[in-house]
Every structure is written in structure tokens, then in C-alpha cells.
Amino acid sequence: MRIGTKKIDDSSGVFIIAELSANHNGSLDVAIQTIKAAKRAGADAIKLQTYTADTITLDCDHEDFLIKGGTIWDGKKLHDLYKQAYTPWEWHEDIFRAANEEGLICFSSPFDKTAVDFLEELKTPAYKIASFEITDIPLIEYVAAKGKPIILSTGIATKEDIELAIDTCKRSGNDQIALLKCTSSYPAPIDEANMAMIPEFKKTYGVIPGLSDHTMGATVPIVAATLGAKIIEKHFIIDRSIGGPDASFSMNEDEFKLMVNAIREAEKSVGTVSYRLTDKQLKGRDFSRSLYVTKDIEKGELFTTDNVRSVRPGFGLHPKYLNEVIGKRVVRDVQKGERLQLSMLEGSEI
Asked: Lowest-pLDDT range, 28-42, 70-84, 251-265, 326-340?
């Protein structure tokens, strides 16, 4: 899979996405400054959400449309929340341009077909299907048919939901699929992160695995990277003090930069399956154990546990030969501190 200039596969580094979401707080200038901050913090991409309150829900006072259930938005109407949080469509072109100027890849999550058509005009390089839209099969079908990489978030998805979404993409002729583990709580409890699903997604579905994270801090993204996540998305804000619907669970520039650095270090730490020693490890073997003579020994005397020991450093005979050395006669005078060698032994074959 390739998103813009970024190759995403087993051999690539983690693709790190800064989620803008509502963190422009109603200001295009804040959005542009946030993009610049995301670049400084080490993000590879900036992601938007493309909807209006009317394309994502109904302006309705019915109880069904009132948010409840222990969220940070309880008591709000869905329409009111999305009216506050949406990114004006007339800003998108400026945001895409600013991201490009900063060297960031820019793409979005569409929430209906009109948003997809609009993003096609902007030549978006990829699409993200938000967690709550993974059951919107007509939308997934429409997005997948565009032939661009599609990133599916699984926050509220059952196994059946995941399989149906993947099958829908493939039936539409699109196998450029990434699947992100997500916990749709804001913020999400760390004990519900369930990072064991990262390798499971890759093994079971043959897709690129990743993480859309709403936990506080960088622990979960770091764990995800070590378990094979190739995409990590985190909400990003220029300053939590500006407020907004997503501010409380978003990272600022310093926090995001620390996370990016930790992810990059975690990637390096994983390495590959290999028993070959590095040059430093080979040099380190100088300090391993080996057999040394611990007392002066005259020719013809026996090697005993009193005059031969396994000690550091590692230049002598391997310690595995100790029991076979004991009881052998020495063929010449040997001084304390000499490396034990086969040539010192009578009948030097072991």
C-alpha cells in the first residue's frame, strides 16, 4: 500500500497520523498553525473529517439524538455537537495546500457520498472510515470503488462487522486495506486497548494493521509499534487550552513529538529474527567465561579443580570442556593466568 509518497508495508516505518478533527476550534488560522505544529512534531500525515451536521445526523429533539452513556459530550444533541466540531468544506482546499507545503500527506474521513465526491475533487490520496461508520456498507462500497487505500477503524465493530467491511472493499476491487484497532471511548481506558489485536488483524485478515488511539499518553502507541502496527493515528491539538470537543484527549506538540520519538525507537528495538551477533556483541564475548590456569603447574602434574577454573575473560578454552580437562596431565610448565589450551594437555584431543 502507498499513501501519497509514503509506502506502508512490513518493511516500512510506522505511518504516523495527526488527527485534526475538531481541534481547529472554528478557526482556519488555528487549523493551519496546527498543521505546522504537527510537522514539527514528526507526523507523516494530517487527517480531517469531512461532514456537516446535516450529512452525519438529523436536527431532531427526539431522545434518540441526545448523547448519553458516560461520554464527555453527554447531554448534547448529536446535531449540535457536529455543528460545533465540523471542518468547513470551504477550508479543505487551504488545509490540503498547507499540508502539502509542509510536506505532510493530507486525507480525510468522509461520512457520506457527497463528502467522497468532494474529496475526489481535492485528489485525496486515501480514505479513512471512522469507527462508527464501519457498518455503513453503502458508504464503504462507494469509497472502495475509488480505488484508493482505505483505512478501516474498528472501535465499535464486531468480528462480523469487520469481515463484512473487508469483503465489501474486496468485492469493489479494492484490496488496499488497513485495519486499525480502536477503542471508541473518549478518552479510552488503557486496560481496554487490547493491543493483542494488532498481530491478530494481520494474521487473520492479511491486511495492514494499525491503531487509532484515544488513550492518554504514548504507552499504547509504543506497544502497538512493537506488535507490528504500521499506521498509528492520534488526535493532535496546538494547545488544549483553546478547548473544543476533542481537546481533553488530544496530544499537544511536545507530547506528540515525544510519542513519535518513542515509536521510532520502538521500531528500531524490534529488529529481525537473527542469531547473528553484531560487532559489539562479538567484542562483548571477550568478557565471557573461559578456562584459565589459576596456579603455577609443573610439567607432568594433573589439571585439577584447584588449578583450573572458569573465569572471565573469554580467551581460553570453552568452559564446557572443564570436566574433560580435569585429570589430564600437563605437557609443559604452565604459569598462573595462562589461557588453558588443548596443546597443554597430554593426549590433547577432547
From this structure: 70-84
What is the C-alpha separation between 235 and 248, in angstroms, rounded? 10
Say which CATH architecture domain 279-344 belongs to: Alpha-Beta Complex (3.90)
Is the bond leading into 187 cis (omega within 30 degrees of zero)? Answer: yes
Chain-centre distance of CA 200, in angstroms? 14
List all residues 6 or more positions away from 184 whose beta carbon is below 8 Å from its beta carbon.
131, 132, 155, 156, 214
> Which pTM value belongs to this model?
0.86
* Count of CB atoms situated within 10 Å of the CB of 221: 25
What is the model's pLDDT at position 225? 97
Q: Where are the beta strands (DSSP E) in 175-288?
A: 177-182, 208-213, 231-235
Using 50, 70 and 90 to split pLDDT, how confident is the model at 349?
low
Please state which of the four CATH numbers 3.40.50.1980, 3.40.50.300, 3.40.50.970, 3.20.20.70 is assigned to the domain occupying 7-51+86-270: 3.20.20.70
